[in-house]
Amino acid sequence: MHSLKLAHLVFAFWLIKVLNCSAYEAPTALVEVFYPQGFRVSIPHENGISLFAFHGKLNEEMEGLEAGTWARDIAKPKEGRWTFTDRNAKLKLGDTLYYWTYVIYKGLGYREEDGVFVVQQYVNTTQHQGGVKPMDGTKSPQPIASNTSGGGNFCLSSETVVNGAPVRCANQLVFEENFNGRSLDANKWFVEHRIPQEPDYEFSLYLNDVPEVLTVTNGLATMRAKSTEKHFGSNFKGSTLMLGTSCTGNLDSEECAFSPKIVNILPPFVTARFSTRGKFSFKYGHVTIRAKMPAAMWVYPQLWLEPSHPRYGNKEYRSGQMRLGQTRSEREHQTLLSGLLLNSKWHSFRLCANATAQKLTEEFHNYQMLWTSRQITFLVDNQEYCHFEVPNEHTAFRNLLNGDRYLPNRDILLTGTRWAPFDQEFSLSVGLGVGGFNDFPDDDDLWTEKKPWINTDPRAKFDFRNAYENNEQWLSETQFQVDYVRVVSV
Q1: Bridge partners of 143?
Q2: Per-residue pLDDT tens for 179-210?
Q3: Which of these three, 97, 119, 141, is where a domain ends?
Q4: By percentage, how much of the chain surpasses pLDDT 90?
Q5: Strands of 49-58's sheet, edge to edge?
Q6: Are residues 62 and 207 in the same domain?
Q7: One GO molecular function term (predicted)?
Q8: Helical residues (DSSP H) of 359-482, grouped into ranges
Q9: Each residue of 48-94: pLDDT tens digit?
Q10: DSSP structure class, residue 20
Q11: Residue 397's domain is classified under what CATH number?
Q12: What is the pLDDT of residues 150-160, one digit of tens each?
């Protein structure tokens, strides 16, 4: 009797084991394709897996369980995944990878059959996110969106390029930031830490270690100005500011080490500025930034696109800058500026200025830009108010005249297309600027209050500090908030 009960127990344990194993299914493989070459196929590791095998063919369906062009057994996991890698294969957008995988789990074999992956985009990899690391030897930057597998759904072809890699489909979200964390996502954003110099000589330090000037909470990135003296203390006045190796400017310049000289003082305020430089850049796309603008006079929000690599020159905006939304606030009135910068001395040459009754400082609005190979258009809440086209060589930016003068870097611009300098990849930039030499003209007729400084005057920062350093009402009105940033392929 005792032996019969023991036999029943053994049978029960065996049955439970069989049922548990039979419930197992081979994990769906993650396929990642890299630009300009290479791909990998992987599954997550879990206890019980002792082997992973990949079999596949490119643009040719598998005949049952044939070995295929690629046939590889992977005997051990690496960094939590069982991974097959081919670093040399060149897969193009629209190519189809047919495959099957085999997993040995607790001694039994399981297959994922009839796998189909259509290359919709490239996973680019100088930075990585989502816990998936780049493949050794690849140089293009981070993933631009989630992988798309399955059948080849129809899509409109795209002219967008992200981090050097073409995007296959238009109307595809290639960048999104909703500020849902407690700080900026370091995989997406680079926070500046420097003392601004030419071309604008802003009256604000951009520092990355002052929590009060940049907060991320409740789905919003909030920037505001703070007095430099209150940050460093009154005893610091007149001292040399040295940012050291953490400086993000030119290490051998006053961007990183500045000694005040009589009235040429340190910028009297601290603010923040961050960008996707080195992490995300693109050419052509539909950009939307939802934001609420600052109400204070003499400050300006920075919703800009800046060149990822300044092919046409490093200074004076010679490689271009695109401004999605910049406001000048004067109490109840705001002027909205957007457009293209080609040179600091031609600062307003291609900027559109529009007085608006919209409550830009009280409500969130969508600041948008549509950038294609045929046009650059600026909009607010889908209402167009600034538009550029370059239909022929005569209208190319390199052939613009300011009086009788061409742009100073015209010879270099001639090496690009007629859209140069706006024919390269640009990065996103968000920040809060104060004063400076270029964004507030010396024209008393423009302002409801007397402007407290003169552009290019050595006393400019000194005069501005004396006017506003202790003005708590003004400081409270410098708040600038961004809800989200999105880029969609075109």
Answers
A1: 123
A2: 999 999 999 999 999 999 999 999 999 999 99
A3: 119
A4: 75
A5: 70-74, 49-58, 96-105, 108-118
A6: no
A7: carbohydrate binding
A8: 410-413, 460-468, 472-476
A9: 999 999 999 999 999 989 999 999 999 999 999 999 999 999 998 88
A10: H
A11: 2.60.120.200
A12: 444 567 899 99
The answer to whether position 338 is within a domain reads yes
Q: How far is it, in rounded angstroms, from Cα 247 to Cα 207?
A: 9
Q: 158, 174 in Cβ contact below 8 A? A: no
- 315 and 457 share a domain? yes
pLDDT (0 to 100) of residue 398:
96
Q: How many Å apart are CA 416 and CA 375, to the nearest integer?
A: 17
111 CB neighbour count, 10 Å cutoff: 15
Q: Over pLDDT 70: what percentage of the chain?
A: 89
Domains contained in the chain, number = 2
Residue 253 covered by a domain: yes
- Both 463 and 340 in a single domain? yes
Residues 58 and 198 in one domain: no
What domain range is 74 assigned to?
30-119
Here the CATH number for the domain that contains residue 70 is 2.60.40.2140
Say if residue 211 is preceded by a cis peptide, omega within 30 of 0: no
Alpha-carbon span 180 to 223, nearest angstrom: 16
Q: Is residue 142 part of a domain?
A: no
Distances (CA, A) of 376 to 52, 181, 204: 49, 32, 30
Kindly report which listed range (122-131, 282-291, 367-376) carries the lowest average pLDDT score. Answer: 122-131
Same domain, 358 and 267: yes
